Amino acid sequence: QVQLVESGGGLVQAGGSLRLSCAASIGIFNFNVMGWYRQAPGKQRELVATIDKGRTTNYADSVKGRFTVSKDNAKNTVWMEMNSLKPEDTAVYYCNAQTWAGNYWGQGTQVTVSS
User: What pLDDT band is residue 1 in, cutting at 50, 70 and 90?
Assistant: First the structure.
Protein backbone atom coordinates (compact mmCIF):
# COMPACT_ATOMS: atom_id res chain seq x y z
CA GLN A 1 0.00 0.00 0.00
CA VAL A 2 1.31 3.43 -0.98
CA GLN A 3 0.24 6.55 0.87
CA LEU A 4 0.57 9.96 -0.74
CA VAL A 5 0.29 13.17 1.25
CA GLU A 6 -0.05 16.49 -0.55
CA SER A 7 0.71 19.90 0.88
CA GLY A 8 1.28 23.45 -0.30
CA GLY A 9 -2.16 24.45 -1.49
CA GLY A 10 -3.80 27.70 -0.51
CA LEU A 11 -5.26 31.00 -1.62
CA VAL A 12 -3.24 33.18 -3.98
CA GLN A 13 -3.94 36.15 -6.21
CA ALA A 14 -3.84 35.83 -9.98
CA GLY A 15 -0.28 36.03 -11.21
CA GLY A 16 1.06 34.51 -8.02
CA SER A 17 2.87 31.26 -7.35
CA LEU A 18 2.47 28.13 -5.25
CA ARG A 19 4.55 25.00 -4.79
CA LEU A 20 2.76 21.73 -4.18
CA SER A 21 4.50 18.78 -2.55
CA CYS A 22 3.59 15.11 -2.55
CA ALA A 23 5.34 12.85 -0.06
CA ALA A 24 5.13 9.10 -0.57
CA SER A 25 5.23 6.52 2.21
CA ILE A 26 7.70 4.31 0.34
CA GLY A 27 10.52 4.79 -2.13
CA ILE A 28 9.44 6.26 -5.45
CA PHE A 29 12.54 5.53 -7.53
CA ASN A 30 10.88 2.56 -9.22
CA PHE A 31 7.42 4.06 -9.67
CA ASN A 32 6.45 4.10 -13.35
CA VAL A 33 4.87 7.54 -13.30
CA MET A 34 4.02 10.15 -10.71
CA GLY A 35 1.97 13.21 -11.36
CA TRP A 36 -0.64 15.77 -10.54
CA TYR A 37 -4.28 15.92 -11.49
CA ARG A 38 -6.90 18.50 -10.62
CA GLN A 39 -10.65 18.66 -10.30
CA ALA A 40 -12.64 21.88 -10.35
CA PRO A 41 -16.23 22.03 -9.08
CA GLY A 42 -18.61 20.45 -11.57
CA LYS A 43 -15.80 19.22 -13.79
CA GLN A 44 -14.03 15.94 -14.35
CA ARG A 45 -10.61 15.25 -12.91
CA GLU A 46 -7.94 16.17 -15.45
CA LEU A 47 -4.25 15.54 -15.89
CA VAL A 48 -2.01 18.50 -15.08
CA ALA A 49 1.55 17.15 -15.19
CA THR A 50 3.45 13.87 -14.92
CA ILE A 51 7.04 12.74 -14.49
CA ASP A 52 8.12 9.20 -15.24
CA LYS A 53 10.88 6.94 -13.98
CA GLY A 54 13.31 8.45 -16.46
CA ARG A 55 12.26 11.99 -15.46
CA THR A 56 10.46 12.63 -18.73
CA THR A 57 7.73 15.18 -18.08
CA ASN A 58 4.35 15.76 -19.65
CA TYR A 59 2.06 18.77 -19.22
CA ALA A 60 -1.48 19.73 -20.05
CA ASP A 61 -1.52 22.44 -22.72
CA SER A 62 -3.22 24.81 -20.29
CA VAL A 63 -0.23 24.80 -17.90
CA LYS A 64 2.74 24.49 -20.26
CA GLY A 65 5.29 27.17 -19.56
CA ARG A 66 3.75 27.99 -16.18
CA PHE A 67 3.97 24.75 -14.16
CA THR A 68 7.03 22.59 -13.55
CA VAL A 69 6.98 19.07 -12.09
CA SER A 70 10.05 17.56 -10.46
CA LYS A 71 10.98 14.79 -8.05
CA ASP A 72 13.64 13.72 -5.60
CA ASN A 73 13.84 9.95 -5.26
CA ALA A 74 15.96 10.22 -2.11
CA LYS A 75 13.20 12.25 -0.42
CA ASN A 76 10.32 10.20 -1.86
CA THR A 77 8.79 13.49 -2.93
CA VAL A 78 7.33 15.04 -6.05
CA TRP A 79 6.79 18.76 -6.40
CA MET A 80 4.90 21.01 -8.76
CA GLU A 81 5.92 24.63 -9.04
CA MET A 82 2.99 26.71 -10.26
CA ASN A 83 3.66 30.21 -11.57
CA SER A 84 1.53 32.87 -13.23
CA LEU A 85 -1.55 31.32 -11.66
CA LYS A 86 -4.94 32.10 -13.15
CA PRO A 87 -8.43 31.92 -11.65
CA GLU A 88 -9.13 28.95 -13.92
CA ASP A 89 -6.38 27.03 -12.11
CA THR A 90 -8.65 26.90 -9.05
CA ALA A 91 -9.26 23.25 -8.17
CA VAL A 92 -8.43 20.44 -5.79
CA TYR A 93 -5.04 19.09 -6.83
CA TYR A 94 -4.34 15.38 -6.39
CA CYS A 95 -1.05 13.54 -6.40
CA ASN A 96 -1.01 10.24 -8.30
CA ALA A 97 1.43 7.33 -8.38
CA GLN A 98 1.34 4.55 -10.96
CA THR A 99 3.30 1.63 -9.55
CA TRP A 100 3.80 -2.09 -10.05
CA ALA A 101 1.31 -2.63 -7.23
CA GLY A 102 -1.42 -0.36 -8.53
CA ASN A 103 -2.58 3.19 -8.98
CA TYR A 104 -2.64 5.44 -5.89
CA TRP A 105 -4.07 8.85 -5.04
CA GLY A 106 -3.51 11.41 -2.34
CA GLN A 107 -6.31 13.12 -0.47
CA GLY A 108 -5.97 16.34 -2.44
CA THR A 109 -5.05 19.92 -1.64
CA GLN A 110 -7.15 22.97 -2.49
CA VAL A 111 -5.71 25.69 -4.70
CA THR A 112 -7.77 28.86 -5.03
CA VAL A 113 -6.69 31.69 -7.31
CA SER A 114 -8.51 34.99 -6.86
CA SER A 115 -8.89 37.52 -9.65
Answer: confident
